[in-house]
Amino acid sequence: MYFRNREHDFLNRLAPYALKSVHSNEAYRIPINGEYVFVKVYGPKKPRFMYEIRCMLNRIGMRQPIEYRPPRKRKECEESYLRHWREKGFHVPEIVVSPFPKYEDVPHLSTTFVNGVTLKSLLQKGYSSSEKNLINLFTDMSKRHQLAFRTQDNLLFHVDANTQNILAANNLFVHVDFEMGHPWEALMESACREVSKLLISVGEDLKPNERELVYSLFKKCYRNKELLDSLASSVSERPFQKFHRWRNKRKKIRDPRRVTLYDLVDTLRSVKGNYPGSFH
Ligand SMILES: Nc1ncnc2c1ncn2[C@@H]1O[C@H](COP(=O)(O)OP(=O)(O)O)[C@@H](O)[C@H]1O
Ligand SMILES: [Mg+2]
Asked: What CATH class does 2-112 carry?
């Protein structure tokens, strides 16, 4: 009860700085000495009901992803990813001292504010205006994954790499939101999670007729055939194929813009890895 009150006080205090958010955590932009600090307060995930069940499973010893652990653990995990990526030279916001030391008991993350736009809003301008950026993004990702496989480093995957968790600032891509890490998993599994999450959300942000172009570009830049094969077999060799295909169809009837894992692997299989610019 005491914690709930403290959290409530803190959120009230931060309210004037709230960022409009479709996310589950509360996010804020706090002005400090002429600069901005990004603050995120860890809260329950939506839907709340599922969140509470998975938290309970975690408490009785059934391991759940980091996002279903207590807020303090989520903060510690996210900070360790951020530190690690920075040490290895990848682009992430820098952790800063909290502007609210009095609320240290309410777990929150404070980082430099990235002045940029989300990859989602870049993509809304259409494929051709984002092609150069996408080449950089996919090539950087390929190099990062190569390093991860070479050094057996599971912290180098951005498992929740959707287009709202990648910010474009000064021609660089900055990755945010590492709460979904699965550091106990095999490297290939995490790599497949990152690739599928990113490509599905990129596909959904572009027009349907631009998807083949972008997946072909990815194949050209990423160049890890083993991953593409592993991704394809993790989808098409799961048990209960008929059931998954049926669910897949239902999802698309409800939302025709939806890109499913089957759409992704089928398209990746059928497109060639094209050289940039060759389709204009
Ligand atoms: N350091 C930052 N600077 C600027 N914007 C950020 C920063 N970190 C996150 N964001 C923006 O805030 C959104 C929510 O933060 P995020 O860490 O993704 O929380 P959630 O776990 O709720 O998705 C992100 O999708 C991103 O657009
Ligand atoms: Mg996010």
From this structure: alpha beta
